[in-house]
Write a structure and sequence with these properties.
With 197 residues, the chain is an alpha/beta fold. The protein has one domain. It has six helices and seven strands; from the N terminus they run H-E-E-H-E-H-E-H-E-H-E-E-H. Strands 1-7-6-2-5-3-4 form a seven-stranded mixed beta sheet, with helices on both faces. Strand 6 and strand 7 form a beta hairpin. Helix 1 crosses helix 2 and helix 4 packs parallel to helix 5. The radius of gyration is 16 Å and the shape is globular.
């Protein structure tokens, strides 16, 4: 994978210092440790506010995690493309036949290490169900799913554990969401109906 902000020695040291100060000021703490696995899909949930990104980035520095995230190819055009890739961005061409999931699977197959952060809601707006992409990426790439979280009630965030998908989406999703049932987002009203049919 490409060289990122997390690989830049001076920036990574400063980043960890910034993370401690930033999280201390807003009253947040890191929980858990980075899973001992070279490749996995990291669930970034719940996602209801723009505050999730800087908090996740700060936790990433403290966890010493080289985080990647995906977005549409158009935002990676000059002059911002190089910077966005440096901060972990992966450009996705939505016009390709294999789609977003297929391109993410290819990325996993092309590298020995990859942590791909995916917000399963796909948006900060209210949603009734999670999008299935994160799951199909993990199954297709044969990698586990890490249960990452931001709990605004306790002001704690981190990674709980690894989940190994069986291929039975409905059953696995029910197991995964048991954990998230105890996690409070910034705006609960945007999250309260998650998982209902």
């Amino acid at each position: 994978m490409s060289y990122t902000i997390f690989d830049t020695p001076f920036i990574s040291v400063v980043g960890r210092l910034w993370a401690r100060i930033f999280l201390g000021i807003i009253g947040w703490k890191k929980e858990g440790e980075l899973p001992d696995a070279p490749k996995f899909v990291l669930i970034a949930a719940p996602h209801t506010t723009n505050w999730d990104l800087p908090i996740m980035l700060a936790l990433g520095f403290l966890l010493r995690a080289k985080l990647f995230w995906m977005s549409k190819e158009s935002i990676f055009r000059w002059p911002f493309g190089g910077f966005l890739r440096w901060v972990g961005g992966i450009d996705i061409d939505r016009s390709k036949p294999n789609g977003v999931v297929g391109q993410c699977i290819e990325r996993f197959e092309q590298t020995d290490t990859l942590i791909l952060a995916v917000p399963p809601e796909g948006t900060r707006k209210k949603v009734r169900t999670w999008k299935t992409g994160f799951y199909h990426i993990a199954v297709g790439a044969n990698v586990p799913i890490a249960l990452g979280y931001l709990d605004y009630k306790r002001r704690r965030g981190g990674v709980h554990s690894l989940f190994y998908p069986t291929g039975d989406y409905e059953k696995d999703l029910a197991e995964i969401q048991k954990f998230y049932a105890g996690i409070t987002p910034k705006y609960p009203a945007l999250y309260e109906s998650l998982g209902e049919k």
